[in-house]
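Hello,

Following up on my earlier ticket. Below are the two sequence lines again, exactly as submitted.
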Amino acid sequence: MSLLIVGSIGIDDVKTPMESHKNLLGGSASYASMAASFFSPVRLVGVVGEDFPVKYRELFRARGIDLAGLKIIKKGKTFRWSGEYLWDMNQRKTLSIKLNVFERFKPALPREYKATPLVLLGNIAPALQSHVLSQLSQTRFVMADTMDLWIETARSELLGLLRKVDAVCMNDSEARELTKTTSLVKAGQKLLFYGPKFAIIKKGEHGCLLFAKNRFFTAPAYPLEDIHDPTGAGDVFAGSLMGYLASVGEISFEVLRKAVIYGSVMASFNVEAFSLNRLQTLRQPEIEERYNSFKVISHFDDIDF
Amino acid sequence: MSLLIVGSIGIDDVKTPMESHKNLLGGSASYASMAASFFSPVRLVGVVGEDFPVKYRELFRARGIDLAGLKIIKKGKTFRWSGEYLWDMNQRKTLSIKLNVFERFKPALPREYKATPLVLLGNIAPALQSHVLSQLSQTRFVMADTMDLWIETARSELLGLLRKVDAVCMNDSEARELTKTTSLVKAGQKLLFYGPKFAIIKKGEHGCLLFAKNRFFTAPAYPLEDIHDPTGAGDVFAGSLMGYLASVGEISFEVLRKAVIYGSVMASFNVEAFSLNRLQTLRQPEIEERYNSFKVISHFDDIDF
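Thanks for your patience. The regenerated structure is below:
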């Protein structure tokens, strides 16, 4: 099945304690789409300026991503972000942000996109996510990502959105902030109370948690020795998770467990190099191999349901 | 097989944002022994003053713990600790500490203890841990726990101890501090480099990591909604892990994986009530039931080694 992904597309400058790179392909929709394309057909919805490098558009094309929903604003400038990671790679600071064409982004879906069965509402303003949702028909499963900015500045719009989606995905600190509780177990349950049938809390180097009514799954993180660039890991996770669901075509807690692991597998690859460089060389057998590693590192006893 | 446990035995005053209790049974050896006793015969080595309540000695006896190694100092006062947990229960501050009889503790093992096959060197000064080690013969497996205090004040003694033990167990922050690295994967490997064949890094609410040469296992944490008192969770974890190993009588990476889960199971029970109250009512079938829950919450696919 097809997967529609909406979110930001940008040009990033990224600095880590070891390296610094400029004019990288970035943005939540870029990371999510490239990752999801390993699993299912992807339809990208986003906006860029005329300055958006042709080579980046070609990267999307090379992975078979449908760009009918990619709007190019004449004389416009592409969204730009610049950030720096501190020495432990768990914390980062935004050095500069220029919304540019993203400031007036109001996604209008191409007609052929409106019946896409699976939809990932990447991290953009909740009002825009709702706007996309309102254009859809026959959609079977929608997952929304979000960030602290919207929890702080658009809380009621975000809660309104959560009533309308099937799943929500956010970081541990964001889940705590939105639900106003310190226990992640309670936070997950409260997210379900807001509306979604599934809630996913990402814990970075500690893996992630999946919640459904009376169901719980805890996914480990892959033990990487070196992380080169954490940018986009959460978006790659969300994109791959949704891509896997689209490839299976059936939504259940059992399928979601595996989807969460595929999300973790892909995120673990993505942080091995800057921007989307690692995904450009990634081959299908490597994905299966690491998926099996996740089984090996977390298995301790035979299970008999 | 029998398990020898050495460590502190104390009287604690514990405060959380919700409750406050005084004169509780505490200390690393108390927690570890009570927990281990659910799996194997335990020999306790420690020191208390004449003020140590008879009811607490009875608690040990009720669980069949051998107290031949428990020294009672006439007119001495028992070690006392007082601490307070902050509202998120992940941080605590020590309000007061009185070493009392513990200040001159120099454990001398009863003759019949010297051939105990498994030994847990609970968190005391590395020099004392080495002193215990020097009295042992025919010991098959020794695990040492430690804490930030010794990393900061007795680093060379601690590194000397690590050359002589089979396994080491510490918190994530302590592992980072000792190995001077931020990556927990690198920290675990560096701990092995110091000497032990196995290294265990406890991550609190995020579970724990087990390292051996070219082997890795990641254990989840149990999703508790309410934590009443985190005191002693790490000691219960270590005691149960060693108790399980003693019950199996065979040391391998496969057995250690399960041991780590039993450690997590017992720690998850212990934090449900103050001091050792939960372990006093705990029944064997509850342990097996929660062990199975750990399988359910972390299983995502069949494994075929």
